[in-house]
Amino acid sequence: MTEIVPRWEWRTFGERLGAAEERLAALTPERVHDSDELYVLALDSDASLKVRDGLLDVKRLQRVDDEGLEQWMPVAKGGFPLSAEEIARLAEALHAPAPNLARAEYTLDQLVDEVVGPSPELVAVAVRKHRVHYTVGGAMVELSELRTDHGAARTIAVESEDPARVVATVRELGLEGRPNVSVPRELKTLAGFDAHRFAVIDVGTNSVKFHVGERSADGAWRTITDRAEITRLGEGLADSGRLGDEPIARTVAAIVAMVEEARRDGAGAIAAVGTAWMRMAPNSVAVVDAVRERTRVEIEVVDGEDEGRLAYLAVKSGLGRGSGSLVVFDTGGGSSQFTFGRGEHVAERFSVNVGAVRLTERFGLDAAIDEGTVAAALAAIAAELSRLDGRPAPDALVGMGGAVTNICAVKLGLAIYDPGAVQGATLDADEIDRQIELYRTRSADERRGIVGLQPARAEVILAGACIVRTVLSKLGRDALTVSDRGLRHGVRAERFE
Q: How far apart are CA 473 and CA 93, in angstroms?
């Protein structure tokens, strides 16, 4: 088997490829080629084994750069028959379980019938390709049509050993902004043998939440990553009215790292949303521009009403909650969202600029304080949540967001956060009152020793608990249900389901 120099690749699929096709139509093709090929695809990997003209070509995704280009490393090329040792190495390259091998060597037919066929982790797809090759900007450009028993697809690919040439050619062809999708990924989609991954980044005033989910062919979701990083983007916003340089820098760094991780994990699309800070800070564009420049991901502003609607969608997809009246609230660092509905129907939604960061700074809630200060904070919250006054108690009240889930984790004594234990748990008024007193009598450093409390949330947890307690009182409920799902899950449901 012979080694090959890896190239940087970018490829997109679509029925209409727009101005790029018109641009290529004006050029003289360097080569037109038809071929019959066989791909062996793996469920848990985008690596592929391809056979063309009796020769085996195995590629594995090596890395994804900041521009989203993929570098595919040729593992090997060779002919048949293959030895049992070579078959085992190929299975490892495909991230498939080691096969039970009864032969010392295998022909192509034996490989398909005896190794690929019995494995639920592998599938063989026969492909008829029509490829037209051009050179544009020093990069190889291929316009192709792929036909399979499962359907057909049209694609343009740009390849070069120089990634800068690939990027420049993609822009020249007017394809920038389209998703980069590899052939194995598209063939798995056509064959119904795919598990698509998508990422959502929720940039909040206090934390950045990151979710990567995998959707299988039957529509079921599996969580790959779900976590939050406290960056305190809104630090000082209440006093100055602007985002500070240091909070911007640490927030952008966190987002860039999450985008890179999502791409390494094979996310086909990334959605990023910003909430209260984008609506309040006149210099929020500094974050948006920096993230766009470094990742090509655009942070979209979500207005207060939309934020509430997406939170409601996240709860309904995760908890159901029957057909009775339901109120969903999500309290964050800069604002709180409320959505009122019944069953699947949303009747009302609104956002109030009541958030844990501003309240913490206003009342000094990041330190041990007296009862009078807590009472003053609760009174201020009650006044700002006057839109909740006079409403009938709902059949169900669901809370989400970092304050609610941290309060629940403290109640359960979770030294290691367990989303399965938090999702659907109950918090009553007595427990919230207990925790308000727990935080009131301790400094932020002392709070960090409380089991279940995320250390970076120690400064704002008292303010969050006060908001949650006020919501309970206003809506006439003595308990709420906790949703570990949040805005990011609502975005995932709307954009990617």
A: 58
Which residues touch 204 (CB under 8 Å, ≥6 apart)?
Answer: 233, 275, 276, 277, 332, 333, 334
CB atoms within 10 A of CB 56: 22
Q: Measure the CA–CA gap between 247 and 463, rounded to whole angstroms.
A: 20
- In which residue ranges of the chain is CATH 2.40.320.10 found? 7-190
Eight-state DSSP code of residue 111: I
H or E, element range at 277: helix 276-280
Q: Quote the pTM value.
A: 0.55
Measured distance between the N- and C-terminal CA atoms of the chain, rounded to whole angstroms:
42
What is the band of 2 on the pLDDT scale with cuts at 50, 70, 90? very low
Answer whether CATH 3.40.50.620 is correct for domain 317-496.
Answer: no
The domain defined by 195-301 folds into Nucleotidyltransferase; domain 5 (3.30.420)
Give 274's DSSP letter. E
Joined together, the tokens standing for residue 144 give 């192709």
Q: Angle between the 402-412 and 461-474 helix axes, to the nearest 10 degrees?
A: 100
Element at 126 (helix H, strand E): strand 122-136
Q: What is the CATH number of domain 7-190?
A: 2.40.320.10
**Whole-angstrom distance, CA of residue 155 vs CA of residue 150:** 16
> Residues near 396 by Cβ (< 8 Å), separated by ≥ 6?
321, 322, 324, 325, 326, 327, 481
Query: What tokens appear for 33 in the block?
Result: 């080629």
Per DSSP, the three-state class of 389 is: coil
Specify the residue for token string 């400094």.
443
Is beta strand 31-42 parallel, antiparallel or unpaired with respect to 122-136? antiparallel
Token readout for 342 is 């019944």
Q: Which residues pair with 42 in a beta bridge?
A: 45, 122
Cα separation of 250 and 256, whole Å?
10
pLDDT tens-digit series, residues 207-221: 899 999 888 755 678
